[in-house]
Amino acid sequence: MDRQNRYRPFDSRATLGRCACGQHASQSEHERQAHASSATDAAMMSRDFVEAAAVRTLFPGDAARRSFMRAVGKGAAMTAIYSVLPIASLQEAFAEDKQGNLEKRDLNIGFLPITCATPLIAAEPLGFYKEQGLNVTLQKVGGWALVRDRMLNRELDASHMLAPMPLAISMGIGSQPTPTRVATIQNVNGQAIVLALKHKDNRDPRNWKGFRFAIPFDYSMHNFLLRYYLAEHGIDPDRDVQLRVTPPAEMIANLRAGNIDGFLGPDPFNQRAVFDEVGFIHILSKDIWAGHPCCSFSVSDGFIQRNPNTFAALFRANLKAAAYAHEASNRPALARMISAPAYLNQPELVVRQVLTGTFADGLGQVQRVPDRVDFEPLPWYSMATWMMTQMKRWGYLKRDVDYRSLAEKVFLLTNARRAMQQIGEPVPDAALNGGYRPISVMGRTFDASRPDDYVSSFPIKRT
Amino acid sequence: MNGPRRITARISIRQKAALCSIALLAVLLIVWQAATCTSGPDASVKSPDDAEAVEYAMLMGKIPETGAASQSSSKVTGFPTPAQFAAEASRQLAHPFRDNGPNDKGFAIQLGYSLARVAAGYVIALAVAVPLGFLIGMSRLAFLTFNPFIQVLKPISPLAWMPIALYTIKSSSTSAIFVIFICSVWPMLINTVFGVAAVRRDWLNVARTLEVTPLRRALRVILPAAAPTIVTGMRISMGIAWLVIVAAEMLVGGTGIGYFLWNEWNNLSLANVLFSVLLIGLVGMALDLLFAQLQRKVTYVD
Question: Over the stretch B203-259, which tens digit does the pLDDT of each residue have?
C-alpha cells in the first residue's frame, strides 16, 4: 500500500466529497479528468474509488475522519480499516462489474467506405471502442447485399447498414426474415443528386423523361428519396426513367462514360464526381427532406439477446462517436482520420468538403452548407414508419403491415435514449414522449399515425 | 546502311524476339503517353483573380491548398499517364509489407493472402480431381454417369458460384476457397479422365499378364503413363484458380490482391488498379512457369 490512492482517504488534509473523489471542485471536472485517463488507469481508479468510498462510510463526517487519521497515523488507520471492511474483495467485485460483464469482447463490425459510416469508423481511431473494453475489428465490405449476407451469416456482429435495410430484413423482404435492429442512426442528410455535366442547363426534373439514374441499393433512402423527388415533379420512377443499382465507384465511372445521366449516391462519391469533373451537385438531399436519416448502426436481435452488456457498451461507444462527429469543430480532424486508406481511401480534400459543408458544386460556385451532413443518432419511430410507407408505395412491400409495432420493434429508440442519458448526452423532449418527430418531405407533412392515408395520397404509386 | 543486317544474321531467334518484345513495349508506352497527356496544360497556368474563384479552384484540387503545401499536390483523375503510373507504383513498391490494420495492407501481404487462398482451393481440387479422374477414366460406366454433371458444372462462372457459396457455407473466407476449388477442379478432372482412359492397351495387358495388383497397376503403370496429360490439366487449373481469386476476393473483401484492386477502384485510382493488374499478371506467369517445369519433368517419349 505504498502507492498513493488518488482520492487520498487516508490523508488528513484532503476533503472527501466535493466531487466523487474529492480532488476536484465539481463533479463535471472530475469526469473530465476521468475521461482523459487511460484504460489501465481506469482499473486503478476503480480500486481507489472503492477504498475511498469504504472510508467514507466509516466516517460520514469528514472532520471526524480527518481527526482520526491525525490521531492514529496513516499506516495504523489503513490496517485498522482493512481489518474491519472487506475492501479487497469489494474492489475485486467492482472491477468485475466494470469489465467482466462483457459477454463478447472481440467483435467484427462491417462498414462501407462512405461518409455515412463516420461515427462507427471514427470510434476506432478515437479509441471509443477500447474505452468500453471492446476489441473491435472494422471490416470493409464490398456492397450492401454482402453486408446483409454476412450479417445473416453471423460473420459480422454488427454493421453499418442503410437505414431501411433492417426493416426489410426483419420483414423478410429481399432476404430471409431475420429480426434485425437499428441501434442508432449514423448520419442525417449527406446525400445528393448528381447530374452529368452535359445536363448543366437541364435542371428541371420535369424534363428528365428517359434519364438513367444509379442508386446504391433497393432498400435505401437514396432510392426512396430519388423516387419521391421525381414523382413530385410528375416523373414516374418506374416508367419514365431507369433506376439501376450500382456500387458508388461505378456510378462515377458510368457518369464519365455517359451510361447514366445522374445518381443519388452516398458521399463522398457525390463530391468525388465534382472533384473528378464528371458531374455537378444538382440538389443536396437535405433540400428534399431536411434531417432525413440515411445509414444506421445495426445488429441482429439475436446478438442483443445473447450479449446485452456488449451491446450496451457498443451503443455507448457509438453514441460518443456520434456526439464527437456532430461538433462542427471536429469535422476537419474527422476528415483526416476517416479518409485514410484503411477507411474511406479517398482524397482528404473531398471528404473534408463533405463534412464541413464548404464545397465546390461543380458549376463554379463554392457553397457553404454546414448541415450538408450531420450526425444525430436517435432512431425516431416516425422515420421507420416513413420508410415503410415508401416500401409500400413502390411495391417492395406487398402485404399489410402493422407500421407502429414494427417501427417500435426495429428502431431501438428507448435504448438509444437510455444510453445517451448514461453518457450525459442531451435527449430531445420529443424522444422522451412518443418518439414520433414530425417529418416534412418537400413541403408535404407526414402524419405517422395515418401511414396508409399517406401512401394513398400520392398520385404516382404502385399500389 | 548494311551494318544492321550483318548483326541480325549473327544473333539468335531468342534475342531477336526479346528485342521485338522490348520494341513492342516501347510502342505501347508511347501510345499510352500520347493518349493520356492531352488534358495537361489548360488548368495550371492561369491563376484566378477573386477569392471565390481561388477557393473554388482549391476545392477542385486544381491549385494546392494554402495551408498544407506539399500534400495532395498531384490530382489524378481519369486515366493516368505512364509517369503518374510509375510514381504510384514506386509508392506501392516502397512499402510492400505495410500493415495498417485489417483494411490497409501492402501488396506483398495481399499477394500472400491470395496465394494461400489459391493454394488451399487448388490442393483440395487436386485431391478430389485426380482420384475421381482415375475412377471415371478406368470405368466406362462411371464416365457415362458423371459426364453430364461435369459438362453442366464446368462452364459456370466464379461470380455465379459466389452467392450460392456465401449463402450455404456462411463464411466468406471459406466461400472464396470453395469457389476456387469448384472452378479449378474441372480441367484437372477431365484431363485425368482422358489421360487414364488413353493409356495404351498393350501396357495394361502386360500388367494383367504379370498379375499386378490393381493399386500397383494404378500407381506404376497408369499414373506415369497419364502424368503428362494430368499435369497439363493441373497447369490449366492453376491458371483458372488464379483467374478466380480476383473475382472472389473482390466480392469477399478484407484481404487479398482482389480486395486491394477493389479498394483502389473504389478510390477511382486507376494507377493502382493498373499496378495490381500488372502484379496479378506477373504472378500468374510465375505460377505457369512453375507448372511448365513440372510438365517437362513428367513428359516421356514413346
Answer: 888 888 888 888 888 888 888 888 889 999 999 999 999 988 888 887 776 788 888
pLDDT band at B95 (very low <50, low <70, confident <90, very high): confident
Match domain B107-298 to its CATH number in 1.10.3720.10, 1.10.230.10, 4.10.520.10, 3.40.50.300: 1.10.3720.10
Instruction: Please tell me the distance from the alpha carbon of residue A376 to that of residue A296, in angstroms, as a whole number.
Output: 11
A100, A118, A147 - which closes a domain: A100
Distance set, CA A371 to CA A10, A239, A365 (Å): 52, 34, 18
Find the range with the poorest average confidence among A48-52, A277-281, B242-246: A48-52
Give the integer Cα–Cα distance in Å for B97 and B160.
Answer: 33
ipTM over 0.90: no
Number of domains in chain A: 3
Q: Between A266 and B46, whose confidence is greater?
A: A266
Nearest CA of chain B to the CA of A423: how many Å? 28
**Same domain? A413 vs A343:** yes
User: Domain check: are A305 and A257 in the same one?
Assistant: no
Collect all residues of chain B within an 8 Å Cβ-Cβ radius of residue A149: 163, 166-167
Based on the domain organization, do A166 and A48 belong to the same domain? no
Q: Indicate the residue among A39, A73, A100 that finishes a domain.
A: A100
Average pLDDT over residues A61-74: 71
Round to whole Å and give the CA distance between A363 and A413: 40
A106 within 8 A of A139, measured Cβ to Cβ: no
This prediction has a pTM of 0.76
In a domain, A9, yes or no: no
**Nearest-CA residue of chain B relative to A339?**
B267
Residue-wise pLDDT for B130-170, tens only, equals 989 988 888 888 888 988 998 898 888 888 888 788 778 87
pLDDT tens by residue, B176-190: 899 999 999 999 999
What is the C-alpha separation between A335 and B149, in angstroms, rounded?
Answer: 53
SS3 B167: helix
- Judge whether A6 lies within some domain: no
Among B162, B268, B269, the residue to mutate for chain A (most A Cβ within 10 A): B268
Q: Does A443 lie in the same domain as A405?
A: yes
Q: What is the pLDDT of residue B181?
A: 92
For residues A322 and A119, the answer to whether their CB atoms sit within 8 Å is yes
Interhelix angle B223-252/B257-266, nearest 10 degrees: 30
Cα A331–chain centre separation: 15
Question: What domain range is A41 assigned to?
Answer: 27-100
- State how far Cα A327 lies from the chain centre: 14
Q: What is the mean pLDDT of residues B257-284?
A: 87
Half-sphere exposure of A371 (CA within 13 A, CB side): 10
Whether A463 is covered by a domain: the verdict is no
> Could you tell me which residue, B119 or B82, shows the higher pLDDT?
B119
Q: Tell me, yes or no, whether A169 and A201 share the same domain.
A: no
Within-domain flag for A3: no
Optimal mutation site among B39, B60, B100, interface A, most CBs of chain A within 10 A: B60
* Per-residue buried b or exposed e for A284-323, using 16+ beta carbons within 10 Å of the residue's own CB: bbbebbeebbbbbbbbbbebbeebeebbbbbbbbbbbbbb
